[in-house]
Amino acid sequence: MNSCYLMMTNRCNMNCSYCYEREFFKDNLKDISEETAKRAVDFLVENHKPGVKARPNEDINICYFGGEPTLNWEVLKKNIAYCRSIEAEKKIKFGLYLLTNAKDLPQPEEEFFRVLRDHSVKMQVSLDGCKEAHDSTRGHFDAIVKNTRKITEALNRHIIVRMTVTPANVRHAFRSFRAMADLSCTVNMVPIVEEEWTEELIEVAKGEFKKIMNYYQKLSRMKPVRFNIAENCVNPAFRHCQVGSSMVSITVDGIVYPCHRFQFHAEPEKNWKMGDIFNGIERYPNFNGIFAKCYSCETNICHPCPSAFILKNGGRAPEYYCRWNREIEGCVRTQALEVRRYNENEVLTRKIDLMLEGLGEIQKCVKEQ
Ligand code: SF4
Ligand code: SF4
């Protein structure tokens, strides 16, 4: 076990129209306690196999999730500090991630930024694109962009913006990409599985992605731009999530599910509960059948989601979803390859420049002696 969504609270300060949590949590608006959050970390450490890494420099990833996790800031900041405090003794390196809507930052802001900076917490902000696209379902675009800018400046590094591409907002995909790339954020665009992608909508998506790729190509010659679809397209690797095996989620009460979304399925306790952090894991779900056709699929940009496939299509990838991935990949591939080639040449040129500079310095020293 090396990856976890740790739920800090069931409360949220927004009211998004498509939120699947709102109805579910309305009678259980609860925060995780300091003790449960700490126990969750210990549980992850106890269940971690030495040497198995979540990422090259991270043994265990924890993504602080909710509701809106920053609403439980007092517990969150203590938990972050706790993780870092046990790293040396446990010989574990944590990757700490905070997924926030960034509508309101914890106060005082200086302390919030200091904790994130001092403990190297990586940030992901949920923003559904340009103002028109975002405000149509979520609201508070201006406040979120203002806070996202503050975070980027205070941390002096990229933050990730995740945009769910839906039939309702796909017409704004290009403008949304531009807005997010101009904020110097890493842009992660993910198509929704639960809503049908008709031929007509896929054509609209292709038109938008052509414009995105033209802009991305020009922009990448001026500054580093990170865009998941273009990068994954030229980097063949099967990216299904490790849900229910190396990845789990832990609720505010310490119950372990395969991922945060499974607690919203029908009869979650009966069907999807894996155990709890106090008594351990009782069973592991088996999702192998769900990925059967994915193992031989040649699409690189897809990140198949078992939870959505189970909810929407009896555990199989809906055909319209696969078509979306295939068509969009076909549409972005040529330019994605060109950008990669350009970036590789740039790196090579910079290396040669540095070597020549070094040789010049050596020559200078030799002459002076
Ligand atoms: S496009 Fe379809 S078959 Fe291919 S990886 Fe994605 S979900 Fe699986
Ligand atoms: S099952 Fe879906 S929602 Fe859950 S972690 Fe995997 S990709 Fe994400």
Q: How would you describe what is shown here?
A:
The protein is α/β, with parallel strands linked by helices and 369 residues long. 46% of the residues lie in helices and 13% in strands. The protein contains twelve helices and ten strands. Helix 8 (199-220) packs parallel to helix 12. The longest helix has 50 residues, at 319-368. The chain starts with a strand and ends with a helix. Bound molecules: iron/sulfur cluster (2 copies). One iron/sulfur cluster is lined by residues 293-294, 297, 299, 302, 304, 317, 322, 325.
Give the secondary structure arrangement, pairings included.
Blueprint: E1 3-7, H1 21-25, H2 34-46, E2 60-65, H3 73-90, E3 94-100, H4 109-118, E4 121-126, H5 131-137, H6 141-155, E5 160-165, H7 173-182, E6 186-191, H8 199-220, H9 228-233, E7 247-250, E8 255-257, H10 268-271, E9 275-276, E10 280-281, H11 306-313, H12 319-368
Helix pairs in contact: 2-3, 7-8, 8-12
